[in-house]
Write a structure and sequence with these properties.
Blueprint lengths: L1 E5 L3 H6 L1 H12 L2 E2 L2 E6 L9 H5 L7 H11 L4 E4 L2 H10 L6 H8 L2 E3 H9 L11 E4 L3 H6 L15 H6 L6 E2 L15 H4 L1 H17 L4 E4 L2 H13 L5 E4 H5 L2
Parallel strand pairs: 1-3, 1-4, 4-5, 6-7, 6-8, 8-9
Antiparallel strand pairs: 2-3
GO molecular function: oxidoreductase activity
InterPro entries: Cys_rich_dom
Protein name: (Fe-S)-binding protein
Length: 249
């Protein structure tokens, strides 16, 4: 049996637990090579350390790295409903105690949609979501994990999140004017450059609203949280929802 360690980032655990539950349920429905998946949730897991690293204090993440390797080192795969956290672990997880084990652990990390398309190779989903939906393609997922093709490149387009969303019954995906534009969140960027971040977020929201999106979805709740704050301040009827909640609906 294949074991998958579910890594739930801090902010998802604290603010969007429904997305974590949807991720768990969605993973439990899948199979790999015809066999079931056993999803485990290591209770000793903590923050991946990305906020400190983004602020220039990566040396303070060492205890978190050791804890992560200890908690997740024994599973076959590690899956997270957060593109930015997954990318941080893929590129920055190291260990002073056992670097070989940290390297092996780092190579097992997947963002949810990446895991469903590349490892599980999902071809159909029993999901229904009869709404107009706009897809926000976060920078970490787009340019770091390569979940979708960047529009600035002359290459064949693809999108792993869109591939999965197109399997959902009743969903209507809206076409955006700028499909891979940054929302302005950027982790600590939204704190140190608040005005720029807010303006970028307003532009991103306006693109979705202008095309009649009832929901904005994506693979990174940090970006969606930023957009949700703007939508609420505008008293907009448009809502945000993590892609796992749609795929598990």
């Amino acid at each position: 049996m294949t074991t998958v360690g579910l890594f739930v980032p801090c902010y998802v655990d604290q603010f969007y637990p429904k997305a974590a539950i949807a991720t768990l349920e969605l993973l439990e429905k899948q199979q790999i090579n015809g066999g079931p998946i056993q999803v485990v949730f290591p209770k000793g897991q903590t923050c991946c350390g990305q906020p400190m690293a983004n602020s220039g204090f990566e040396h303070l993440t060492k205890p978190l790295n050791e804890q992560f390797v200890e908690q997740f080192g024994a599973v076959d795969y590690i899956v997270s409903p957060s593109g930015s956290c997954a990318l941080h672990l893929k590129e920055h997880l190291h260990s002073d105690r056992n670097e070989d084990r940290a390297t092996a652990t780092r190579q097992k990390v997947y963002e949810l949609t990446e895991f469903l398309t590349d490892v599980v190779k999902v071809t159909h989903l029993k999901a229904r979501f009869p709404y107009r939906v706009g897809l926000h393609q976060s920078c970490h997922g787009l340019r770091g994990l390569h979940l979708s093709q960047m529009s600035e490149l002359v290459a064949s387009p693809f999108s792993k999140p869109m591939q999965l969303l197109n399997m959902v019954d009743g969903i209507e995906m809206v076409n955006l004017d700028r499909p891979d534009e940054c929302c302005g969140f950027g982790g600590t960027f939204c704190v140190v450059e608040e005005a720029v971040s807010a303006k970028m977020g307003k532009d991103r929201v306006a693109d979705h609203v202008r095309h009649g999106a009832e929901y904005i979805t994506g693979a990174d709740l940090s970006c969606l949280m930023h957009l949700e704050g703007i939508l609420r301040r505008q008293n907009s009827r448009t809502k945000v929802i993590h892609i796992a909640e749609i795929l598990n609906s």
